[in-house]
Each structure stands twice: as structure tokens, then as C-alpha cells.
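Check my protein:
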Amino acid sequence: MTRATNRQRRVDRNDLLDWVERVATFFAEHYGLPPITGRIVGWLMICDPPQQSPAQIAMAIAASRASLTTSLRLLTASGLVHRLTRSGGRTSYFRIDDDMWQKVIRRRIVSMMSFGEITQDAIGLLGADNPRAARVRAAHDFFEWMAKLLASSPGPPSVKRSAERDPR
């Protein structure tokens, strides 16, 4: 099958919505997010066009527009979803960029790494050999290991490929 044929492949809408529901369940079970938040993420990962208005999202996932507001605000603030407007228009559009996962996870890792600085301060405060510092040392060792691991990682190849296909 050629690349052009893959792009034109018709996918059953019910199968798409089943997948969206799996995403919603994942985010609810693993992150404690309301199912609607996961549905928005799922839909924005597979929708066409990739940018959708709240009305389009609401229609696609069978949700009220009012129920989307809080979730879209949360997803935008967290960096998972990008809000766009078109010149001269009043409608906002939302999308998930191809490199969104990399950006969000890297930001979270940087945040975790900054906690490593706080653990270093606690080790200095308590003393490295103090038994009370054992849990802090374990956390600090983990953050230090993660920092070294990430520093040596070249990053995911799929993001590089998608940027080459879709320059903005």
C-alpha cells in the first residue's frame, strides 16, 4: 500500500470513537482526569483536520460545549493542547502538535530534576551519613541518574521525521 493510499484509508467512525474512549479510560485511570478530558486528547490525536473548534470537538465526542471549557483550559495550561485563532476570526481552535508529547514530558522531567536540587539541600542539611537522609538520598540518586540518562539521549526519531514532513 502506498503512502497516498494510507492517507486516504477510510476508518469506521465507531472504531475511532472506541479508540478515543480507550484514551479517556487511560487518562482517567492513570492520571485521575475526567473522562471528557481524555476524550478531547484522544479526539485531537486522530481528528482531521488536526485543529478543531470546541463545537467540532463537542460534536465528535458527543459532549456539550459547556462541559469542554474546563477540560480545554486544563489541557491548554498543561501544554498538551495548543490553542489557535485564525486572522479575523473569533473562534478558537485546538490541536495537538506532533511534538507535543516530547515537549510536555521534557518539561515535566525538568521540573522533577529541579526537585533534585531540593534533595541536595536536604542532604546538606541532614548530613550525607545521617539515617534520616536515606529517603532523600534515594530520591536524589534517582534524579541524578535520570538527568544523566536524558542528557545522553538523542531524542525520539519520529518527532524529527514529522517535523521534516510538516514544516511550519
